[in-house]
Amino acid sequence: MFQPLSDLEIAMQAELKPIQEIAGGMDILPDELELYGKYKAKLSLSLLSRLQSKNEGRLLLVTSINPTPAGEGKSTVTVGLGQALNKIGKKAVIAMREPSLGPVMGLKGGAAGGGYSQVLPMEEINLHFTGDLHAITTANNALSAFIDNHIHQGNGLKIDVRRIVWKRVADLNDRALREVIVGLGGPANGIPREDGFDITVASEIMAVLCLSDSLHDLKERLGKMIAAYDHNKKPVTVKDLGYEGALALLLKDALKPNLVQTAEQTPAIIHGGPFANIAHGCNSLLATKMAMKLGEYAVTEAGFGADLGAEKFLHIKSRAGGIKPAAVVIVATVRALKMHGGVQKDQLKDENVNALLKGAENLAKHIETIKAFGLPYVVAVNRFTSDSQKELDAILSWCRSRKHPAALTEVWEKGGNGGIELAKAVIAEAEASNKSFTPLYDNNEPLKSKIGKIAQIVYGASEAVFSSKAIKQMKEIEANGWTGLPVCMAKTQYSLSDDPLKLGRPEGFSIGIRELKPSAGAGFIVALTGEILTMPGLPKEPSALKMNVSKEGKAEGLF
Predict the structure, then answer these.
(1) pLDDT score of 11
(2) Catalytic residue among 129, 398, 412, 466
């Protein structure tokens, strides 16, 4: 019986060019390239200054339906689309997020694409890469140490130890660290207090790094981050503590985007990796801007479904960087749509057109969201080997009967050749559109109004219901002058609602806002809904159980 190669096996068989050759075809000067071995490099920030007067390429945003355990392949389609554009003579550069070790060693897996549409060297990208996430972890935890030391050394800023909001982080899924006590062991070890850990990608420093447009901007944003509140309930910032310079120093190399290549030698800039369910879900602004300057087309992705990643890209990242997509790709699969239609995971290989069409209502809602922003779009039907022709014909017919541009996509199996139909469709929409990108809310609207619009227009909820704690926090946010910031919703990725079990297109539900947290450095207000956690846990059988290293030092069982 034929056994297809794994993603790791395909990655290891791919022919890689030295990264200098990739850069040489991209208008990157030798002095703008900082090598990390043969196939990875960091890009100097001076590159953007040199290319300041150059016209930007068209930006293509890849998003998807709500993810399911069946898989959607959004990163794979992102890579495949970039490769396909180059196949048809368009100069394309990909901009993607960096994977976190938490999901890599947990349940979700990596974020380097798959099959013949992945970024390489895959095993290095999915593990430590160039150390960016470690630098963010170190900077985050350094601030925690500085806060505790400030209190231990006399607490000149009168920090209320009950109101320290800065948590420590680890780039792992570790539920045991969600709530901890620090400072035990007597006076020499500090003052005992409650603390906790988030996963590194939920750190505000990750968001700050991804939204900064320069080293100066990075330092300014770091200084605005709120560490704690004093006994008068006034915010104490990093600048008040005096450590914004030290944190910027720890992050100065991590701020530089990373250049790698795909399995077909298409350039890919990979940088930053906030999750979209607990953060803003987009790769760095610097990486996207570099891709737009270096390519005729820049292909980027936003985390999870359009209700999370795309909404945040369009309300937060687009505004921060003054950029907007020329078109949006919405990824869907037969398998995932069947799950949204009520099929259990162990029955997905069975043909079921009725469930597929029922699940298509989830796709319909995400299309409505992108249309509400005034953007052109194409549905990418990402083919899996278990899909029947009847099912593929049914979803493509569903799209076309409703005048939704759609293309069958086979980039996992065929690389760029499997995405040519999609590439041509996206170019047609991007170049022909006269639509105008319009955010769903104005930043100066009341916070309650902004959250309500996201809940109703994007999720399809009847309303947003605020807890008494959230109402109190809203008043504090208003008193501190933060109401003009955009909103970053922390919500389950699996459902349009805040209940992960409500698949498809739920109706008659409300969104519960249990807590509001200002991220003043990143420049947004986080609204926590449902039971969303900022430190995930591991599954019963983590992916790490299958991982090993050979005698030759080669990765095994990664994916």
Answers:
(1) 86
(2) 412
